[in-house]
Design a protein that fits this description.
8 strands, elongated, Rossmann fold, 6 helices, alpha+beta, two-stranded parallel ribbon, four-stranded antiparallel beta sheet, 2 domains
Length: 168
């Protein structure tokens, strides 16, 4: 694939069609190829049409996604909008030193997992703000670390195809 890509780039194409450009490559070369593709897109204003099942390629190279199922366009949207429009829940992970008082769950927030010094929560973004959750958590715990986990493009696509198969 590297030689094919190099040969194609010799001609400074205005449009580059790439089909699984990193398939079979080791992890270091994958990152280098992705960076090269992004640089070509930005510096030469080359349009990149990427066909890939590797969502890491999609997330790192693409700004927009066109999803096709059985020859039919299902979605054509910026990646960020695709994620935001198809996922209604987020996850929040916290680590804490101690518990100051009892944690009272908020409506729309579910505890996924909890141990002595860690907790993972899932929340409905239309129902509860992160700020509201953090206020509740800081009242109950001495927080040492936290993270809001955005859904991956993998989970978005999986959910989309699951819904399509149910609709039938």
């Amino acid at each position: 694939m590297r030689c094919e890509l190099a040969t194609t780039l010799l001609h400074n194409p205005k449009m580059l069609f790439l089909d699984e450009p990193t398939i079979g490559l080791d992890i270091v070369i994958k990152y280098e190829i992705r960076d090269l593709i992004k640089k070509i897109n930005q510096s030469q204003r080359t349009t990149i049409l990427l066909a890939s099942h590797d969502t890491n390629d999609i997330e790192s190279i693409s700004q927009r996604a066109l999803i096709i199922n059985s020859g039919r366009i299902v979605t054509d949207a910026p990646l960020k909008a695709l994620i935001e429009n198809h996922i209604s829940r987020r996850e929040l992970s916290i680590m804490f030193d101690n518990q100051k008082k009892e944690y009272v769950p908020i409506d729309g927030v579910d505890i996924i997992d909890r141990s002595d010094h860690e907790m993972r929560l899932s929340f409905e973004i239309s129902q509860t703000s992160i700020e509201e959750i953090l206020v509740s958590l800081t009242n109950a715990f001495t927080i040492t670390d936290l993270g809001v986990n955005m859904p991956s493009i993998d989970s978005v696509i999986r959910d989309m195809f699951s819904k399509m198969s149910l609709e039938g």
